[in-house]
Amino acid sequence: MKKIITITLFVLLTVSKAYSSNFFIEIPKQKTFANFDNNKNNYDRFLANEEPRNIDVLSYDLEIDWVEILPSTKDEPEKRKWNGKIKITLTPLENNLTYIELDAVKLKINAIKINDFPLAEIPTNENGILKIPLEEPINTSDTVSLIIEYLYDNPENRGFSHRNTPYASNFPPETERPSAGTLSQTNDSRYWFPCNDRPSDKAIFTVKATVPYGMTAVSNGILDSTVINYVDDERYSESFFWRSIEPMPPYLFTVAASEYTLHKEKIKLNSTSNDSVEVYYYFWEEDWEGDNDSFNVKRALQPTEKTMIIFSDLFGDYAFSNYKIAVVEYSHLGFGSVGMEHQTLSTVSRRWFRTFFPVPEFPGFAHELAHHWFGNLVTCHTWKDVWIQEGAASWMQSIYAERIGDTLDKNKYYEQQLAHRASYLNHISQNPIVFETPIYGLDDETGIFSFSSLAYGKASWIFHQLKEWSREWFSVDDEGFFSLVRELLDRHRFGTITSEQFVDFWVDYYPSWSKYTMRRFLEQWIYSAGHPQYEIFSNSKMNDDEKYDVTVTLEQVQNAPNVPDVFVMFLEMLFYKNDSIVHTIRVPNSLKSHTYNFVLDFDIDSVSLDIRKALFEIVGNNHTSIKEDFYTVRKIYPNPLINATEFFIELENEPLKSIEIIDVLGRNINEGFEIIKQTNNFLATVRINSLKNGFYFVKLNNKYYEKLMIINGK
After folding, report:
1. Which of 431, 462, 521, 601 has the most C-beta neighbours closer than 10 Å?
2. pTM above the 0.90 mark?
3. 455 in Cβ contact with 387 (< 8 Å)
4. pLDDT, tens digit (0-9, with 9 covering 90-100), for 71-86
């Protein structure tokens, strides 16, 4: 068992001194910390049906026919269906596998071939699971090919958005043009093609998408070719053959189609390893340069080039074959305004091109592009780890805000992070259960979006706090921190990452003397809920050197299920005079009640904490200034009181009428002491019974103050 050491540290500083970077307090082991693993295991069981399967899909080759459904309307329900055919190439991850299990919800399976041999009896996809029996067991050295023909006739728009739906949306359509598109995050790929619908199983995709002639189908990767097909004497169709170069999980695969106009450009990156990135915009022609109160694609997408350069410079070159943005009518899925980072193809609602959105301040396009580092290049291993990519992309919005202008603007960075903070705290005020919910293990169906302030806003503060504290406590500047993020991305490039791997990466970086503290710091934010809620008690008093002794006590008062009694924090303390910050000091905080003592050259009016640097709330703040004229010469002895139970009070030319003892929080101590003897009017003996160790103020005759320190008092 590891020995845990608790150190109580009294810090006396002058204004010219600051904390050194090797100053940490070891955290006493709390019951909440012991429950980290229990919390995690509970979520693992809750999502057990989403654990990785015993297969590894190598590739998906999909064919879909949208010729009939694309031009149809909800007045033609008989046309709300389309045919699909998919070839799945996979290998088992264990020997003697006797069946293959895939996800397929409300898809009518018409035929299955295994290695080109038809399956005589088609299994039913009960409870959304298609269980395909094998005539002979297969082993890890085998490669299996499945060909599945199916019919999509789902009346719901789950995973597939099209206007031919009987379900009314809360949001009116933005266009009457024929438009179709898929949107699968989190687990909706299974609603429109059979697959191993797990973010951990990345594969190569190809698709042949056939649409009415005159429309364009767009998908991930590169467009290999197109073919015009004869349908009947009045109609032709066109097939678009798309191929992904880099592997991806099913939820990042998409197909969209409409009467698109295409605009192309190239973005020159600063690195010599990738000369340029080809960029394609698919939109409706009238929107390219719309007038006021309408849509303007050109205006909205102006920041794309600089955004890609910013992210490439900081986090490594854009890693994919190209980048595309396509408008898709997602109102039929119930979304008024949505964007999705499909790999190489960000699809967005038309509303994002409205001219009332400020440019470049609107961060939506930057968020989706950011996911091509966190989300696409490196993907959450399971949905309970999704906070990593959503938090990172939200934090990268702040990087975007800081750097998209002509000059670097740190205030813009903090403003964006404070907006994430406000969203999170506002969500708690509307739904207190948010305070009790960890960011780890959010329900894969609804939790990511119902608790979006956790997966997006609160999670962004993990990255933000790591960056701020790496600079202020470990002398790692922003560029050094970005290099660490690049290393993290490189380590998991084109793969996945778990919450455990995320924690291990940062703990491995920090020096050995801080590993325990940093692990607890990260785990408290990931596996536990809530945040610190502080009450601040402070006082200041002139000392004999005509400086000011300042005592500050931070009490963590949060109290809710799943919320730690104590968070380990790194804070910036702010000292105010006449409503202005006159001094700042960085402090660690890892105790439920933590008292700090400073010596300043000046008096102060109040003490607070910098909300830009750490995630917390201040729920109470009390400051007391003890004025100079209270300090008339008096005697309290012995002082400090060491291993003793009595002290003496001696006054000058004034009888002792009353005595009060006040702790550093400004609270009167009514018990624990008594006056046992008063020799004369000017000398009294006081016995302490149960006062704890620490600093106290002794108030005499309701006007005089003296300091008293008790050490090992009883």
Report:
1. 521
2. no
3. yes
4. 998 889 899 899 999 9
